Amino acid sequence: KGFVDLYYENSEAPMPIYFSDPVRSGNEYSFVWDQSYDLQGDLIYYSIAVARDVNFNNIVFSKEDMLETSYKVNLDLDPDTYFFRVLLKDEHGNEQLSLERYHDPNSEDVYYGQLSFEVE
Question: What's CA 18's distance to the chain center, in Å?
């Protein structure tokens, strides 16, 4: 594919966003992210997930297809490192990752579209 083809293909997906570290108050976690835009004006849905592992095989919480750009949830999390992500999808199923990335300090691997947070 040429550059122009890739441009048009990528312009179908929602624009990528940034999100903030979760804010904790007791067992309540507040997640906030930027609003995305779609060049075609499509409706954008946000899905959030929190997992015990960087590959999101052990998900402890998820909420899909939200229109809001924030979510509060009560989670009883054991002390550990957790990973979270916000995925974007327009009404036609075109998906986009956020601009965040997690650098694994042990392997130097980079995981796009997610961050980590500590529960002490």
Answer: 8
Element (H, E) at 116: strand 114-119
As a whole number of angstroms, the distance between CA 56 and CA 99 comes to 17
- Measuring CA to CA, which residue among 26, 86, 16, 19 is closest to residue 51? 86
The secondary structure of 3-60, three-state, reads HHHHHHHHCCCCCCCCECCCEEECCEEEEEECCCCCCCCCCEEEEEEEECCCCCCCEE
Q: What are 13-40's pLDDT values in tens digits? A: 999 999 999 999 999 999 999 999 998 9
Q: What is the pLDDT of residues 93-118, one digit of tens each?
A: 999 999 999 999 999 899 999 999 99
